[in-house]
Write a structure and sequence with these properties.
single chain, alpha/beta, three-stranded parallel beta sheet, 8 helices
């Protein structure tokens, strides 16, 4: 199977790894890890990160400038549709009309699971307002279909709770979402290590977004490099088509017609 580049909102990307910018020890480590990951799309929590709204503080854009990366403002920390919409509009002002955003409306502070009714409401408002919405959601295939029908440019189901590192807990739902989607499906949240990223790609996902898995590693820059390789290996395995699973072993070399 011949591969095609990841396309989001009409723009193509060679990397299928999307990364966040939180939890690093400093801006220098942030940039080093992002470069090691090979990511081209970098997500930024507008409510927690300075990208120009605080002129007296260092700006994240100094180490991830928009001419090198696609900046993906996100609404992390929002618990209702109205605050998420306001945050996206603020990002559009700060980034000179930038319309690509990651919508994330949370349901509670403990699990950080998405609040689906508020997510749907915010998605409708943002799409109508001209935003290109990449949307964080649960792994419900019906909700994923609804978000695509609203007009979201990518649907981003969780693998497991944000920051948990538990990997993909429900691969069958992810497969169902992938097989019925006409927009990119990007696993968002729950990846813990490179093998988790590879599994997501082997399931047919178009990409993986992660932050804590890299930033919380003992060596974030080395883990970023490992994640890059995991994404690439998983994608190649998906395209190659794995052998079927069998209950019993079979010889690698056939013995029919052999001389004894």
């Amino acid at each position: 199977m011949q591969d095609q580049p990841l396309t989001v909102a009409g723009k193509t990307y060679q990397s299928r790894l999307l990364v966040g910018t939180g939890k690093y020890k400093d801006l220098e480590e942030t940039r080093a890890a992002i470069l090691a990951s090979g990511a081209e799309i970098v997500t930024v929590a507008i409510r927690r990160t300075n990208i120009g709204q605080n002129p007296d503080e260092p700006s994240l854009l100094e180490v991830i400038p928009p001419d090198e990366f696609t900046i993906l403002p996100n609404t992390a920390g929002c618990y209702d549709a109205d605050s998420a919409v306001r945050t996206c509009r603020l990002a559009r002002e700060l980034l000179d009309g930038h319309t690509l955003v990651k919508l994330e409306v949370l349901g509670d502070e403990k699990t950080l699971f998405p609040h689906i009714t508020e997510t749907l409401k915010a998605a409708e408002t943002l799409v109508a307002d001209g935003f290109d919405v990449m949307v964080y959601t649960n792994d419900d295939p019906i909700v994923a279909r609804e978000l695509e029908q609203i007009g979201c440019v990518a649907v981003m189901p969780l693998a497991s709770p944000i920051g948990s590192g538990l990997g993909i807990r429900n691969p069958y739902n992810i497969i169902e979402i992938v097989e019925n989607a006409n927009v990119p499906i990007i696993v968002d949240a729950g990846v813990g290590t490179a093998s988790d990223a590879a599994v997501a790609m082997e399931l047919g996902c178009d990409g993986v977004l992660m932050n804590t898995a890299i930033a919380a590693a003992q060596d974030p820059v080395l883990m970023a490099s490992a994640m890059k390789k995991g994404i690439e290996a998983g994608r190649e395995a998906f395209l190659a088509g794995r052998m079927p699973r069998k209950r019993f072993a079979s010889a690698s070399s056939p013995i029919d017609g052999a001389f004894f």
